[in-house]
Write a structure and sequence with these properties.
- The chain has 283 residues and is α/β, with parallel strands linked by helices.
- The chain has one domain: Rossmann fold.
- The chain has eleven helices and eight strands.
- Strands 1-2-4-3-5-6-7-8 form an eight-stranded mixed sheet.
- α3 crosses α4.
Length: 283
């Protein structure tokens, strides 16, 4: 018979093991399987019908990795969310329109499979950083992407784009004087103004489309991001959509994302409040 200390240690070890989150990596969300069309799932050890966060990494529309999640999975699992980090194909292999389609396919996978991980596929929060913020905002305003995979915006309960300056591409292109930066934008979005409008989240905002509430985070001291974030928030608010532009004071383009999940981090606290409000809101 085991001694009491050994028995207590065994019980503690079993409890600790049971409490570990479930992590499943490299799940394909499109067929045929493509290494750039996969996602990772981080699910709490227990719970059912939990809301799901879909995270979209950044990287200038041409690089990045779904593994770049820092503290986020653990922080959101602890709060009772399933966390899904997705990747997507890049320019120049595909267009920004096609990569936004990849994000829509990932959301479709989440809708179909969330329950297998304790999640609710009808309560999805879309979040992203940098280029991923642009893709998050676009898929949550231009309903055609989700419609193309048989879904609607109604299941998206909130959107949190983090520090990008391309909510209204024509306005941003006109404001930028740096030719190298303009060239980089053209490489991603093309030369045609019609394409710039089509890929601008602000250009798709309208009342009655079930566009979700937005929390738009940006670095207070970074050029261009504040103006674009405030512009986008104003466009959403004018259409009667709840939107807040929140300045991350003292943050860099990297740290505003990497610090999410830290205790007393102001952007994290803003996200926590936003999620509480968004998930309490009536459909």
């Amino acid at each position: 018979m085991r001694s009491l200390p050994l028995l207590l240690a065994a019980i503690l070890a079993a409890h600790t093991h049971a409490a570990e989150p479930r992590i499943v990596r490299d799940v394909p969300y499109a067929e045929p399987a493509n290494p750039r069309q996969m996602l990772d799932v981080y699910a709490p050890a227990e719970g059912k019908n939990l809301p799901v966060i879909v995270w979209i990494h950044g990287g200038g529309w041409r690089r990045g990795d779904k593994a770049s999640v820092q503290l986020k999975p653990a922080a959101f699992n602890e709060r009772g969310f399933v966390f899904v980090s997705t990747t997507y194909r890049f320019v120049p292999d595909v267009s920004v329109k096609e990569m936004t389609g990849d994000v829509a396919r990932a959301i479709r996978w989440v809708h179909d499979h969330a329950a297998e991980y304790g999640g609710d596929g009808k309560r999805i929060i879309v979040m992203g950083h940098s280029a991923g913020a642009h893709l998050a905002a676009l898929v949550c305003t231009d309903e055609s992407y989700l419609k193309s995979v048989g879904l609607s915006l109604e299941m998206i309960k909130g959107c949190v784009p983090i520090d990008v300056s391309m909510y209204d591409i024509p306005t941003q292109m006109a404001a930028v004087s740096d030719e190298a930066k303009k060239a980089a934008y053209r490489n991603a979005f093309g030369d045609e103004e019609a394409s710039h409008r089509a890929l601008s989240p602000a250009q798709h905002v309208a009342a009655g489309k079930h566009i979700p509430p937005f929390l738009i985070l940006y670095c207070a001291d970074r050029a261009e991001a504040p103006a674009q974030s405030k512009l986008f928030a104003a466009v959403l608010q004018k259409a009667g959509i709840s939107a807040e532009a929140f300045a991350g004071k003292g943050k860099t383009h990297t740290s505003i994302s990497a610090d999410i999940g830290k205790p007393d981090d102001p952007p994290t606290l803003a996200i926590d409040k936003f999620l509480d409000d968004a998930l309490k809101a009536k459909p």
